[in-house]
Task: inverse folding
């Protein structure tokens, strides 16, 4: 790959060629949003008012093959406007290399100011944050009443534990080795735990249905085919280890590590924590005995619930740490207002 | 930010109106089908109501898991409490021969039953798990008289909504809805693991509600009352537990 000019490469069937864009897209305004992955390929979405959107894969030629910028387009009578910075319009000639473009059936975008995070994502994110903290605090309080864990169906102070947390308990009948008993907080903790669980489950349903509907999972969370390689993972990890600053593209899109982490949280850890939690309900188990039998019994469900919650807590810690490292202000602004901050210098690279 | 369009405003307004109407209708239906718990007020009321309503719909007729005899815990944990009062000690000294269970409220024939009266009903047993809200559990065989047998014998009113039951310990009383009261596994338990029910496990008489957590299984039961509302009992929250901050419904 390489070369300059607005002449594009060739493409196979089902593809449009860059050189033909001016003709294919008669719109006056084009909107381009970058959703670059980390593997060396840049994904583009070009949308014009009233025209079919084209899902284009572009390679920007630059020092490294890993592109991170937003590339302009050049047509005599077409202006390219960038979604995230609508004030920047380009009319000059810009170097670009195109090697393939798929025509997608995605609809047109009426508002060129595409937010970094959709309103649904932002609202459900923050409700989940509040609920998760409520679940964490109340869950910890409930554990304190019996900080012993078992495996199988039954377990109590008369039976050997699988492991014991080295903390005092809030009930005097639990042998902890501590000479004192903490105040009992289980009443409100249990009320709060289930209320927050409902909040997170209902929020999760809204998020999941909306994400299936809008293609959020497909577009923003499932890694692009080119990124489904160990090499793609290694590159991201290497970058993290070098403590390289986040690339411009990461203000607009998730890299393959982020995508994998979010997918695990959404499709593995949350379902598991709900399942193991419900399996501890004697009433639920009377209706769906398989829920607890499959986990190996009531005490196994409790122990697994503890570990899955621990995994979610670990995710939370890493997630917040990464947000801080990537730029706390800009990432928070993106999740609150929906708008990402784009630094100009990195956006435009003229040749 | 684009200005809010008229269409958007109208759709949002309609959706909000539909939401309010839907919630009102849902609340009315829930009330009618007994899906509102007595402790539905307060900050945690919405969560509690959702939990109770969802579990009640899901578990109306479901049976608590029963286990093979080999799974009976060798060392069950009694969570023993000291004898509640002098009254209880007198009963204990006389081998509980004068222990009575009074049955009153919305029944045709209020009764006072001795332990032997109870044992003259068909005897049932179940091997089920006691799970405490703290997290521990054990399995035992519970032998007793299904509550539904007693309720049928005294002539249950069709208006009945709850059965409240009281321990000889004045501070311990509970209530269950009719789905649990008429449930075949809800026992007035007087035997455990082929013997009498030990005092530490609630003997001579314990209400056993296996589809709910341990605290609904009140020990030393002396009275039960059938009622159509829990408003006149204690603070009207359904049982003693919500008065000390615990949920009335303990199915989870």
Result:
């Amino acid at each position: 790959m390489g070369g300059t000019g607005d002449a594009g490469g060739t493409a196979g069937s089902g593809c449009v060629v860059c050189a033909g864009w001016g003709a294919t897209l008669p719109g006056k305004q084009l909107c381009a949003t970058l959703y670059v992955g980390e593997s060396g390929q840049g994904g583009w979405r070009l949308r014009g008012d009233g025209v079919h959107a084209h899902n284009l894969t572009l390679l920007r030629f630059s020092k490294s093959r890993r592109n991170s910028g937003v590339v302009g387009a050049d047509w005599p009578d077409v202006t390219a406007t960038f979604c995230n910075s609508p004030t920047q319009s380009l009319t000059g000639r810009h170097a670009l290399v195109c090697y393939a473009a798929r025509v997608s059936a995605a609809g047109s975008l009426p508002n060129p100011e595409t937010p970094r995070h959709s309103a649904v994502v932002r609202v459900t994110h923050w409700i989940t944050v509040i609920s998760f903290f409520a679940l964490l605090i109340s869950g910890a309080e409930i554990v304190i009443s019996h900080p012993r864990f078992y495996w199988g169906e039954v377990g109590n102070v008369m039976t050997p534990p699988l492991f014991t947390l080295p903390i005092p308990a809030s009930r005097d009948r639990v042998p902890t080795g501590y000479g004192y008993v903490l105040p009992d907080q289980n009443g409100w903790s249990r009320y709060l735990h289930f209320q927050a669980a409902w909040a997170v489950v209902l929020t999760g349903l809204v998020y999941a249905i909306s994400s299936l509907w809008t293609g959020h999972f497909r577009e923003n969370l499932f890694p692009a085919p080119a990124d489904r390689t160990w090499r793609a993972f290694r590159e991201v990890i290497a970058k993290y280890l070098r403590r390289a600053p986040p690339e411009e593209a990461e203000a607009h899109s998730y890299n393959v590590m982020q995508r994998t982490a979010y997918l695990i949280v959404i499709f593995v850890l949350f379902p598991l924590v709900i399942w193991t939690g419900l399996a501890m309900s004697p009433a639920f188990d009377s209706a769906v005995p398989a829920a607890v039998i499959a986990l190996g019994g009531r005490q196994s469900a409790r122990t697994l619930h503890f570990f899955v919650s621990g995994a979610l807590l670990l995710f939370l810690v890493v997630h917040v740490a990464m947000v801080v490292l990537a730029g706390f202000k800009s990432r928070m602004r993106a999740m609150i207002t929906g708008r990402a901050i784009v630094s100009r210098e990195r956006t435009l690279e003229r040749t | 930010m684009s200005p809010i369009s008229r269409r958007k405003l109208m759709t949002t307004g309609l959706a909000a109106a539909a939401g309010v109407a839907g919630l009102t209708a849902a609340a009315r239906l829930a009330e009618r089908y007994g899906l509102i718990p007595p402790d539905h007020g307060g900050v945690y009321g919405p969560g509690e109501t959702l939990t109770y309503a969802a579990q009640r719909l899901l578990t109306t007729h479901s049976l608590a898991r029963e286990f093979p005899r080999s799974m009976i815990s060798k060392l069950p944990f009694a969570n023993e409490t000291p004898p509640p009062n002098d009254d209880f000690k007198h009963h204990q000294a006389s081998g509980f021969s004068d222990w009575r269970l009074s049955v009153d409220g919305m029944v045709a024939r209020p009764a006072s039953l001795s332990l032997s009266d109870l044992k003259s009903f068909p005897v049932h047993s179940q091997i089920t798990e006691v799970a405490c809200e703290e997290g521990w559990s054990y399995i035992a065989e519970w032998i007793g008289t299904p509550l539904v047998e007693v309720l049928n014998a005294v002539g249950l009113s069709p208006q009945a909504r709850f059965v409240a039951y009281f321990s000889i310990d004045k501070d311990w009383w509970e209530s269950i809805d009719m789905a649990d009261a008429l449930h075949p596994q809800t026992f007035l338990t007087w035997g455990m693991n082929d013997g009498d029910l030990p005092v530490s496990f609630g003997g001579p008489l314990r209400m056993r509600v296996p589809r709910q957590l341990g605290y609904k299984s009140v020990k030393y039961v002396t009275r039960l009352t059938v009622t159509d509302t829990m408003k006149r009992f204690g603070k009207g929250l359904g049982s003693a537990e919500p008065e000390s901050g615990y949920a009335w419904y303990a199915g989870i």
In short: The longest helix of chain A spans residues 298-336. The interface with chain B takes residues 111, 142-143, 145-146, 148, 153-159, 171, 173-174, 186-188, 190-192, 194-199, 278, 280-289, 292, 298-299, 302 of chain A (CB under 8 Å).
